[in-house]
Write a structure and sequence with these properties.
single chain; mainly alpha
Length: 97
């Protein structure tokens, strides 16, 4: 996966930094990553890249949801909640009326 990121960055025209960039992990987090890498039979560096990528995607999704939540009408969140709780649309509409 790390190689895929490198290739993507090259295609997009990003240049690699001259110095290595790294961030110190606290001991507990570092141990957890190493343990998970052993379980998954993967390199710790690849696992860290995947974790950071997944975390960034989650943040972007949360931002997108927050932005779009503001655009909903007053009724739309209520209908969504009722449907998520298992209500069918016809009864959900009658409960809101």
């Amino acid at each position: 996966m790390f190689q895929a990121f490198r290739e993507l960055f090259e295609l997009l025209g990003f240049k690699r930094a001259r110095e290595t960039r790294s961030f110190a992990l606290d001991d507990e987090l570092h141990a957890a990553v190493l343990e998970r890498a052993v379980i998954k039979k993967r390199r710790a560096a690849d696992l860290i890249v995947e974790l950071v990528s997944t975390g960034l995607n989650r943040i972007e999704n949360e931002d997108w949801l927050s932005l779009n939540r503001e655009r909903l009408s007053r009724r739309e969140p209520q209908i969504t909640a009722l449907v998520c709780l298992g209500s069918r649309l016809d009864p959900a509409f009658s409960r809101l009326a």
